[in-house]
Write a structure and sequence with these properties.
Layout lengths: L15 H5 L6 H5 L1 H4 L3 E2 L11 H14 L9 H11 L6 E4 L2 H11 L4 E5 L4 H4 L7 E5 L10 H10 L4 E5 L11 H10 L5 E5 L23 E6 L1 H4 L7 E4 L3 H8 L9 H8 L5 H22 L5 E3 L6 E6 L5 H12 L1 E2 L1 E2 L10 E5 L3 H15 L1
Parallel strand pairs: 1-11, 3-4, 5-6, 6-7
Antiparallel strand pairs: 2-8, 7-8, 9-10, 10-13, 12-13
Length: 375
Amino acid sequence: MATPEIAPSPRHVRGTTFADTSHSPSLAELVGYERAADVVDFCFIANPYYPTSEMIEALQAGLPALIKCYPSSNPATTQRVLAAALDVDPDDLIVGNGATELIVLINEVLVDRIAVPVPTFGEYIEKLRDPAAAELFVLNREHRYQLELGEYLAWVRLRGLKALVVINPGNPTGQLFSRDQMIEFLEDARDMDLVIVDESFIDFAGEPNPSLLPVADRFRNLLIVRSLSKHYGVPGLRLGFCYSRNREMIERLRRLVPTWHLNVLAEYFLSLLPGTEAAYIDSLQRVTADVRRLQSDLATIGGISVYPTGSNFVLFRIEGEMTAAELQSGLLFDHLMYVRDCSNKVGMDDRHIRVASQGRLHDAHLVKAIRALIG
């Protein structure tokens, strides 16, 4: 069977969406909903092995009735379901329409000025009430954009700031801190009013899981933010949560959560979680093994430098004349593969590509295609 082609008109994915944010266009924006199924998406990060086939079948069977229903107007309903899966108290939890909704809410309610290491996930910069409120701690490319926690905290204090963000594992770098490293940092940061730790990729970090959820009761200034869309493989459903043992902080946020802010498909998906823990853990183990293989295979390609990773994606830098935009376009239009050009991330140059593992077969084809284009 002939490989379907995407007409190169124009032969790039740049445009207003790319230029105006730190994100990338979705495949549907680029090629339309019907053609998106022809492209392997290494750009947007999601677990390729979950949900289970039974969960997908339940969503398909329920769709005609579900889309005619309103979601619950009581947020406690979904809080209880998710809290049971996470083994936490539902009163310490807010479920959001993706982590981005909660980041906007946090920036609106809790943040006046905040330290943000860059490059990073752009919502922590772009969705502030005042863009000037973000004090940027610029990471060094020569050091692979690695964050040194003690140096960062000293800089935060020097700037007179009382709020900061740490993303663990880092996005887009994949840098991972152990739980012990994070606890040591939080002990030293007790003088901060707010420490946001974004753990949106933490379940992909392998075992033991370094999440701070089990020790959150020790730090009243700690607010954990996490995307569920990535771990559970349902980015289209938009699910995330924030968690703190500081009830006053959580209640300040909860008062502004809109009614019906989750769609009914997302709510129904959460109801399917009980009983799937073994399948979920198995999916994470498969992803972890796959990404290690992907990282190793990418490292064999001449002309790129591959970053270490503690997540389900790998960042690499093109060391030759080709730009990230050119490699991205070549992969999309010639190989039907979509990767993340990181050029629009604050603090990052125009040579970085991030790829999320999509299973060993797809990953192997990606490595082969990159080798052909770079070589």
